Amino acid sequence: MKNIIDVLKEQEGFQSASGASKEDIDRAEYSLSLSFSDEFRKYLAQLGSAAFRSHELTGITKSSRLSVIDVTKEERAKNPEIPLKWYVVEQLHIDDVSIWQAGTGEIYQVIPGTAPIKLCDSLVEYIES
Questions:
Q1: In the prediction, which pLDDT does 43 show?
Q2: Are 55 and 90 in contact (CB under 8 A)?
Q3: CB-CB contact of 20 with 36 (8 Å)
Q4: SS3 at position 101
Q5: Distance between CA 79 and CA 81 in Å, rounded?
Q6: What percentage of the chain reaches a pLDDT higher than 70?
Q7: How many domains is the chain built from?
Q8: How far apart are CA 112 and CA 61, in angstroms?
Q9: How far apart are CA 41 and CA 4, in angstroms?
Q10: Chain mean position to CA 1
Q11: Rounded distance, CA 40 to CA 114, Å?
């Protein structure tokens, strides 16, 4: 599997914050009562949060708008049927569409009131698509 950091850094317009500590990542998982995928943990540890082209990924940041904790809690309220072990990696800000990742790595598109649609098997695959 390709390295999430390398794939992100290859993207046009790539920008990132600074990496999050292991303690901050553990705290975020505890706050959401879940475990992040290995690739998302690596992304958080090395970049904290990132943006490229027109995408802004959630992460561990002081910005509530991009905080994986705040955004996941907000989206859970809109989408109570979503498994509690999933977390939001991106809000598209179009028709309430959000992109979620399962702790096992799969990526899903969610629109409130509809069943989730599996988009791909990893965050790397989502970024490259």
A1: 98
A2: yes
A3: no
A4: strand
A5: 5
A6: 99
A7: 1
A8: 25
A9: 10
A10: 18
A11: 25
The domain that holds 110 is classified in CATH as: 3.40.1580.10
* pLDDT single digits (tens) 38-49: 999 999 999 999
Q: What is the pTM of this model?
A: 0.95
Expressed as residue numbers, the domain containing 14 is: 4-128
- Whole-angstrom distance, CA of residue 44 vs CA of residue 119: 22
- pLDDT over 70 (residue 68): yes
* Edge-first strand listing for the sheet containing 86-91: 86-91, 98-102, 107-110, 117-120
The SS3 of residue 28 is helix
Written as six digits, the tokens of 4 are 């999430």
As a dihedral over the C-alpha atoms of residue 114, residue 118, residue 124, residue 127, rounded to 10 degrees, the angle is -50
Q: Which amino acid is at 5?
A: I
Judge contact between 107 and 121, C-beta under 8 A: yes
83: number of Cβ within 10 Å: 11
Report the pLDDT value the prediction gives residue 93, as an integer from 0 to 100.
87
CA angle 66, 70, 71 (to 5 degrees): 60
